[in-house]
Amino acid sequence: MSILIGGAWPYANGSLHLGHIAALLPGDVIARYYRSKGEDVLYVSGSDCHGTPISIRAKDEKVTPQEIAERYHKEFQYCFNKLDFSYDYYSRTDSVHHKEEVQSIIKTLYDNGFIYEKEVDQLYCSSCNQFLPDRFVEGICPKCKSIARGDQCDTCSTILDPLDLCDRKCKLCGDEPKVKTGNQLFFALSKFQDVLRANLENSRDYWRLNAINNTERYLNEGLHDRAISRDLPWGIDLPLKGYEDKKLYVWIDAVLGYFTVSKRWGIENNRDWEHFWSKDSTTYFVHGKDNIPFHSLIFPALLNGIGYEINPDRIISSEYITLEGKKISTSNNWAVWVNDVIEKYNVDALRYFLIANGPEKRDTNFSWREFINSNNGELLGAYGNLVNRTLTFVKKFFDNRIPKGEVDDEIKRTIENLYHEVGIKIEGGNLKSAIEQIFDFIRSINKYFDEETPWITVNTNNNECRTTIYNCLFCIVNVTNLLNPFLPASSQKVKGWFSCSESSWKLINLVSEIEIGEFSILFERLDKKLIEEEVAKLNRD
Fold it and tell me: Where on this chain is 'HIGH' region (motif) (predicted)?
């Protein structure tokens, strides 16, 4: 089976924060799981290097947009590598290949009658002497009355046009812009209303509820054609006569990245890439809830317009994560920056917290108290404790070798069921429940260790002791395998101690008499003083 997984492309206009990772991490878990099942997986993403946020930052810093994009693209690559994201290809939207492929797609859409010219009202700033594209305008959302940008409201996720906003202001100078007429190119999204409605009806059992509700709202209102040209100095040049001085709307540019990077991966690896974009492939798109309409409506319409009748099979669209009970705000520096925490904390501790507390169905909160308690209580107190106490016992009483024993039938059945049930949950994007089920089992084996009292039976009934420890070791190696998609670094470490190279999603049988390798503490205890230090740092910053 072919599995295509696309992770949203973060804007290369600033550092990543934990909210970004909370939305993107499910893609890596799903990719690792399917690889362990032996499926043909292509997991792609990249940096969104175009758009007004980059232009605005470049202007503020008095550098070029290219310099901003280059800086943060490199930072993103470093962060994703440190967090053990297993992308098959991580690209960027300002690459020559992407630009050429996108321009070819735009020409095809135009030739197929899905792009047309239209005279429209536009916002113009007399002070800045320029037309203002979406993100150069801020105002009040007409739907929910929150402060919003000219392309989308982050509060209610409504896609907007700058003219929709009330109390409009130029982002660059703060003046109120005027309305002028001009020609722009439009994508005929309305022509795909019926196709996209059918896609939604076929996806109700597979998309997250927020994706279903958000998409249905737009369809019920009736889809409107979208302007795809922008009066900007930075972006992909439109390849159509008379529009050479305009740039492509950044969201058209970005979502097409999944397609263009797949092709690039195929070329560089001499692999067939098109089967990942066939009806026989299963496609996942992983992102935050603010990106839903671009993936559920605009992207499949673009693909349909060039002859690829592909609909996202799974939309894994996360809600938001707050910080210490308040909304993350990059402008106010109220954020936990990824490039800081990956140098200070165990990466698997970060991955565990963001999965176990993932915003799958509702907004969740990151607090330093909860993070440190999670590390000390779950990773160290449950998982790490089971591994350490068992391996220490083996080293002390069995010459560091796996003792002979037989697996308890009930334990074996439970683990076999875990592979099946956890697998189903991962496939459905229900990662929170999946990792919770694994840790419930870990706690049950710690209880089994306590109830079997091997520290007593090692002197009174050695065979019983051997069986107990063998069963604990059997559980550890399988729990480690089950956790590999979630916590790859610690899983590989434990497998190394067991000299276990098995990575398939199936029961691992434990061979007796194998020597356990030199082992160490799996997770370090975090001092609770860090809570006050990190919160104080937030307030200070």
Answer: 10-20
Whether 92 and 239 map to the same domain: the answer is yes
Q: Is 125 annotated as a binding residue?
A: no
C-alpha dihedral (188, 193, 194, 195), degrees to nearest 10: 70
User: Does residue 94 lie in a domain region?
Assistant: yes
Please indicate if the annotation marks 141 as binding a ligand.
yes
pLDDT in tens, 146-180: 999 888 887 887 888 889 999 999 988 999 999 99
How far is it, in rounded angstroms, from Cα 307 to Cα 313? 18
153 is in an annotated binding site: yes
Does residue 362 fall inside a structural domain? Answer: no
Q: Tokens 């996942």 sit at which residue? A: 284
Instruction: Give a yes or no: residue 153 inside a domain.
Output: no
- Which residues contact residue 488 at a Cβ distance below 8 angstroms, ignoring those fewer than 6 apart? 32, 84, 86, 348
Q: From CA 253, how far away is CA 9, in angstroms rounded? A: 11
Cut 0.90: pTM above it: yes
CA distances from 187 to 154, 228, 536 (A): 23, 6, 49
pLDDT digits (tens, 9 = 90+) for 219-256: 999 999 999 998 888 999 999 999 999 999 999 999 99
Q: Is residue 373 part of a domain?
A: yes
Tell me which residue range forms the domain holding 81.
2-114+188-318
**Residue 252: which CATH number?**
3.40.50.620
What backbone torsions phi and psi does residue 223 show, to the nearest 5 degrees?
A: -70, 140
For residue 238, give Cα distances in angstroms to 96, 242, 250, 421, 432: 14, 9, 12, 49, 43
- Contact between 342 and 322 under an 8 Å Cβ cutoff? The reply is no
Which tokens is 5 given? 């997984």
d(CA 329, CA 534): 17
Distance (Å, rounded) from C-alpha 421 to C-alpha 413?
Answer: 12
Same domain, 508 and 380: yes
Q: How many residues does the chain have?
A: 541
